[in-house]
Amino acid sequence: MPSNSSSSSSNSWWQFFWKLKIPLKVRILVWKACHDWIPTKVNIARRGIRTSNICDGCKIGNETTLHALWNCKRLRDIRGEWNDKKGTLTGNFSNLLEMLQIGIANKSLGEVELFCVVIWRIWFGRNSIKHSQLDFIWKDVINWSEVFLSDFHRATSSLQYMPSLNGNKLTCKWTPPSEGMYKVNCDTAVDRINSKVGFGIVIRNSKGEVMASCAQSMVANFSVKTAKLFAVWKSIIFSGDCGLTPCSFELDEACIVKWIKNGCHRDSANGIILNDIDLMVANLGEVAFCHTDKSANRVARGLAIFALKSSDDTFWMEYFPCCDNEMLQADMPG
Fold first, then answer.
1. For 202, which of 3, 114, 235, 316 is 20 to 30 Å away at the CA?
2. What is the C-alpha to C-alpha distance for residues 299 and 329, in angstroms, rounded to an integer?
3. Three-state SS for 125?
4. Are 225 and 190 in contact (CB under 8 A)?
């Protein structure tokens, strides 16, 4: 952040950033990079680990965050294509946050979202070469990012898959968590014909506002109980990645809640998942597991059904993928 930036302008930037319609993995990477929390060589050295600071890509500059994600010599084709398509980024930026706040902030919303995806893709390419020794085509980064972002926006706007409440009266209303807590609802949808399981997760605050949500799927032939247990496992990871703790986890399968709370079935076929949940919960701090009625879990159920119909895993922060917010509004307090 520039030294002359006010606190209010910084807050405005982050409010703007968290509302960008980009995948969660992109958002988290950019957020970490803005705080110099990604493991570049310079950042690793700051942690007391003895290593060369020289970038493996260009063999010239020190691998700072900004160097790794934009200034490296091997990224010159990406910079050139961006400047040709979107306009030159002018300014002598000292870090990525400064570059985003000053150099990118005057771009259109779509260009800011695209730039974030480009940054994520560059980091992916860097790690593919460094850790997996895989070939990576740098000149395709911007084109790949444009297609990826377009597919993501198309998936998030395909809302016809979200079930409606029309003609269905709620028998049990969702209740918000205590102030300062978050509530995580999760559910599944199983497609036996195509051997596919959809997972829906939504995290809300004490006002009923959506803080994060996701729709994921995987190829599997799980039983209903195993699928719901997997949903809990995924929701614990999701809430931790989003930093939305302390929280309570709510689902509509009573026996799963019992297994987790009472420490039973650890020697069953589901024991590996249950043991993994135990380990993750120990690192989360204050958490609780609760059973609820299916009618109070319809938002998560809707996301799980959406996941079955979508070809990609989708994540949202402070945004819910439903222009007809009927399910969500039905859950709102008051």
1. 114
2. 10
3. helix
4. no
- In angstroms, the CA 199 to CA 218 distance is 8
Pairing of strands 247-251, 182-191: parallel
- For the chain, which domains are there? 7-157 (no CATH), 161-331 (3.30.420.10)
276-305 per-residue burial string, b: 16 or more CB within 10 A, e: under 16: ebeebbeeeeebebeebeebbbbbbbbbbb
CA distance 147 to 114: 10
**Mean pLDDT, 10 residues at a time, the chain of 334 residues:** 47 82 87 92 89 93 96 95 84 88 82 94 91 83 93 67 47 85 95 91 92 90 91 92 89 92 82 90 84 92 90 76 57 70
> What element of type H or E holds 248?
strand 247-251
Query: In terms of pTM, does the model score above 0.85?
Result: no
Instruction: Evaluate whether 148 touches 115 at the Cβ level (below 8 Å).
Output: no
